[in-house]
Amino acid sequence: MLELATELLDRIRGGTPFVTATVTRVQGSAPRQPGASLVVDAAGAVLGNVSGGCVDAAVYQACQEMLHGDRSPRALRFGYTDDDAIGIGLTCGGTIELFLRHHDPHAEPDLDAAFTDAARDEPVAVATIVRGPDTHLGRMIVVRPGGPRAGSLGDERLDRVAVAHATGVLHTGTSGTVEIGVADGFCQEPMTLLVECTTPAPRMLIFGAIDHAAALARQGVFLDYRVTVCDPRATFATPARFPDADEVVVDWPHRYLGAQRLDGRTVICVLTHDPKVDVPLLTVALRLPVGYVGAMGSRRTHEQRLVRLRAAGLTEHELSRLHSPIGLDLGARTPQETALSIAAEIVAHRLGGSGVPLRAGVPLHRRGGASPSTVPPAWTAELLDHGAGIARPRSSSRSQEPR
């Protein structure tokens, strides 16, 4: 729902009622994850989708019925084994569960505030009861990191539980459901909370004002990163050369990097090819709690770089975090193709992908249905690299330095 915050804020402020159908759980192969929504407003306009097209028509009809009939919150489930699966179009073999809720713009000031935060790219989470007693279904609480909460689930103990889970979700950036059992002592009947969140865009820091950096900046923006290009040479580090970057900085890379506040979603791409820049920069980068650090160069350059980094005091564990030569082996030659190979490795590393062709039989949807209470923080990458039993290709693209 929060992914459509800007459009829904217009509906709320315009007094237009709408129904949200939000994915709460997925099993098996399903195209959208918890938090994805399809919205139908009173004028019949449709926003978003919950299945990439498979069951959207059926969900649209259910939303229309809620707009013009019974407005009580309810759940929907679509699965391949259902009798009408083929007729509906859910042929991917998975199961999705949805929660439908009618929204009255005049009665939900807390939702207005949540959408405002989300539209401004400020961190906010919304916890909604999607399974439990009918009297509690649809109740929401809005949580901001370090800020005041809004709304209530109807019980102070439940509110504290919801705030704790929502705070955790804000750290991971992963929406999902949380099961609250009777044994926990917080409720008389089992309940399920859907916790949706939005967080500021993750950062991509590109060091080295070269043609490859311009192409990679374009890829970074496409993947919804906030992109910074940094180089100590004012002649080359100009906004005109990097129109897709959110900012272009003229500074020594290690000094700039050391002054930033970064998190586990941050990716750092070192494209400088210069030891006097690379070594101090990577010495800082590999000791930061960021998600990905990659460096361009041939295998020979990489080996020489490792020698220098060891001399600078980096440990083998710190060096094991370095993706070099950077990128997946796509046979890339141009800057654009090389940027694609780097972006592909970043995505695979973040999500635990193997980098092998899908026709080889790897799962299409790996993390469906994960709960925010069980989802590890984004970018617990070394577990994925060393503990999943998957050989991850790390060969460089061919457009890097000749071997």
Secondary-structure-based class equals: alpha/beta
Q: How are strands sequenced across the largest beta sheet?
A: 13-12-11-14-15-16
Fraction in helix: 25-40%
- The general outline is elongated
User: What portion of the residues fall into strands of 2 or more residues?
Assistant: 15-25%
What is the CA-based Rg, rounded? 23 Å
Spans of 5+ residues with little confidence (pLDDT < 50)?
368-403
Overall description:
This protein has 403 residues and is α/β, with parallel strands linked by helices. Helices cover 31% and strands 21% of the residues. It has three domains: 1-107, no CATH class; 126-200, no CATH class; 203-387, 3-Layer(aba) Sandwich (Rossmann fold), CATH 3.40.50.720. It has helices at 5-13, 56-68, 85-88, 109-119, 156-172, 211-222, 253-258, 275-285, 299-311, 316-319, 335-351, 381-387; strands spanning 18-27, 37-41, 46-48, 74-79, 95-103, 124-131, 140-143, 150-151, 176-180, 191-198, 203-207, 226-231, 247-250, 267-270, 292-295, 322-323. A six-stranded parallel β-sheet has the order 13-12-11-14-15-16, sandwiched between helices. The chain has a five-stranded antiparallel β-sheet with strand order 3-2-1-5-4. Strands 8-7-6-10-9 form a five-stranded antiparallel β-sheet. Helix 1 (5-13) packs across helix 4 and helix 6 (211-222) crosses helix 11 (335-351). It is elongated, with a radius of gyration of 23 Å. Residues 368-403 have low confidence and may be disordered.
